[in-house]
Amino acid sequence: MLQRQLFDDAADAGPAGPDQLRLTWVPLAREIRLFLAEDPTLLWARLEAAAGQRLPPPFWASAWAGGQALARYLLDNPDVVAGRRVLDFASGSGLVAIAAAMAGAATVTANDIDPYATTAISLNAVVNAVELTSTVDDLLESAVTDVDLVLAGDALYNPKLAQRVLPFLSRLADQGVQVLVGDPGRGHCSLDRLEPVASYHRTKLGTAEDSLIDCTQVLTLLPQR
């Protein structure tokens, strides 16, 4: 209930404060609008106060640089997703999943373990007039089937997360699933099987943390030879 009310308030309100959501065009993928926060830290504090408990950081309230690059790549290269079954892992706002749906994917599943994220994904999909499915399952130890393409935008955010995510993505690549990763060079893409396929040069991509990033890449994860 709290999740949905948060977005209803954003849709109904006038000018948003820094701790609120507002519909925003994505800098590197101007075809897409998302509910985003001007200051995610303030939003986080407000959500925790309303919920009366600790909550995970609202990563879903930002359009991260790696996700923006991956979204841009899919929109510019629709043949990559057209007619395919797509999984957007650690989807956050749903940006990459929405881009995949716009580019003509047969089905799109957006996965994120944060319930607030799945609410954001569903409502952002409505705003952008696309159809997709969202799930909160933790897939890292699961067998993922019936997928042709896995997308991971900024899912290697820190060393601890990268240590869990890279083996998961590698298993999928070894099973013949195409894996594309969007990453702005945070330093955790240590796997030598990641090969760049596109680069985007642009600063001020929306989040304060990414304000100095001037190059974001899309990489493909090659299967083990």
The major beta sheet can be summarized as:
7 strands, mixed
Helix content: 25-40%
State the name of the first-level CATH class. Answer: Alpha Beta
Give the averaged pLDDT, no decimals: 89
Strand content: 15-25%
Distance between the termini: 48 Å
Rg over C-alpha atoms, rounded to the nearest angstrom: 16 Å
Low-confidence stretches: none
What fold name goes in the CATH topology slot? Answer: Rossmann fold
Which structural class best describes the helix and strand composition?
Answer: alpha/beta
| CATH architecture group name | 3-Layer(aba) Sandwich
Summed up, the domain count is 1
- Strand element count: 9
The total of helices stands at 6
Q: What is the ordering of alpha helices and beta strands?
A: HEEHHEHEHEEHEEE
